Amino acid sequence: MTEPKAVLVIAGSDSSGGAGIARDIRVLAHCGVDALCAVTAVTAQTNSRTGSVHHIPAASIRDQISAAFATRNIHAIKIGMLGTATTVTAVAASLFEPAPPIVIDPVLAASSGGVLLDSVGIESMRQLLLPRAALFTPNIPEAATLLDEAPATDVATMLEQAQRLLRMGPRAVLLKGGHVRSEEAVDVLVWGDGESLILASPRSAARRRGTGCAFASATAASLAHGASVSEACRSAKRYVVDWFNSPA
What we know:
By secondary structure, the chain is α/β, with parallel strands linked by helices. The protein is 39% helix and 23% strand.
């Protein structure tokens, strides 16, 4: 019997189960991929608020990542909440070269409120992790923070900002446009030398937490199966649309 592909998730836990590693594991299982985990932080969250955040010591994070690689052949890596510059450094130092495809979902703030990566951590992520990413998946507010610009309000500006993020080093950038007010939910993917792809779907009236986690994890699952970045993003978009249209 062939062993399923495996994705290493490096992220924080969310006690509500709406986002973080709990969401990642469910999505990866649904995509037919095994999940190995390295927990970076433990958060106390509900759907409306973020309470306490406990950051896991760097040595423990390094040990978790090392144990995961010693256990299974890892086919892709999904990085979510990091929390501090110390954690960013620990994660970067733990990923060997050449690493499997890395998807980075830059969790800077919780949808329920609360800052989840400080300014020093953001700069560390820019320097240490973005150049190693196969795909970087910020949303509109995260892109604005990373670029120190106003949030994009239209697709043209999203494409411009995605290209500027691409120059920070990742091989591809998927800028999620759920925060733009429009009839469609539009995401833009840029890679290579000016190549781009627009992914649009009807906007759902449903409100779900963990959308960014779901998109990044579904993309990592496709990359683990050998899909190209553009194929993986198309597949993840379909997954998220189907999830929004399914019963809660």
